[in-house]
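Input.
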Amino acid sequence: MAEIRKPVINPAELELEHWQQGAFFESRDASFGAKLGLKDLAIGYGEVPSGKSGCPFHNHHIEEELFIILSGRGEYRFGPNRYPVKPGDVLGAPSGGPETAHHLINTGPEPLKYLSISANAKAEIVEYPDSGKFLAKSRETPGAKPVFRFVGRKDSEVDYWDGEPGI
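Output.
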């Protein structure tokens, strides 16, 4: 079991990591489920600036996600639809194919602040419908750093027996 440092955490007291990728993706965020002693739930806090998104449009094949909007306004892109979101809204992202792909976009003037809660599976496949990529990863234990992680595209697929000795 993860060491419980404190059974209560206020997101306003977290040390946030700031990152930016290109012109559209930017966030200040922190993961803190392990700090609460949780091993099967991942919990994060994010602050996304106006006009930005904290992640690419994606779907999970194994893990489910839940988002709780704390402040700000945005748009929840889910499958082929877009939904306006505001403080107090709870957003579901079930596992599945591209029909469950999702991401949040800050459409308001102030930071969009939210909690994200997800299953913390030992293995996961994530698809990125906008770019045609996928991510495969596995961990020895839930919440640990991946022991295997690969990002690629299906067009690099090979036959199951490709490269095997004696074939």
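The two ends are 45 Å apart (CA to CA).
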